[in-house]
Task: structure prediction
Amino acid sequence: MKTSKKTKLWVITIMIFILTSMSAMLAFPITVNAAPPLTILHNGSPVSFDQPAIIRNNRVMVPFRALFELMDAEVDWDPRTQQIFGRTDTQTITLTVGNSHAIINGEQHFMDAPPFIVPETGRTLVPIRFIGEALGADVFWDPVGRRVCINT
Result:
């Protein structure tokens, strides 16, 4: 079966178009900008943790020990039961990794983001708003600046 000159010309034109499109994609790669890091402020001062804050299930999660200590609470960890215990003069909080229920002063409360362990670091993270408010702080989220403000 013979192919016409017109068909050959179309095939060559399409091949040239495909090759130039591919070379343009290589010359101008598409970049995806990662979201800027989260910022935590306590009474207006920046706070840094040894494990960066992350967003999980639309909740900002931070290392439990650092947050409890920031809020002037004593903290204990039971690795056998994977439970976190936080205490102040007026509050007692018990959390369990993977469990959406917290016990605050003997009463059960629901958390929409349970504590979890980061596999790469072994750090246990908790929801900053839930813990902050349970310990009496006002907690605000600034979505534009990706900032959490804790005021005690």
Observations:
- Helices lie at 5-27, 64-70, 128-134.
- The mean pLDDT is 90.
- The longest strand covers residues 59-63.
- The domain at 39-151 is CATH 3.30.457.10 (Copper Amine Oxidase; Chain A, domain 1).
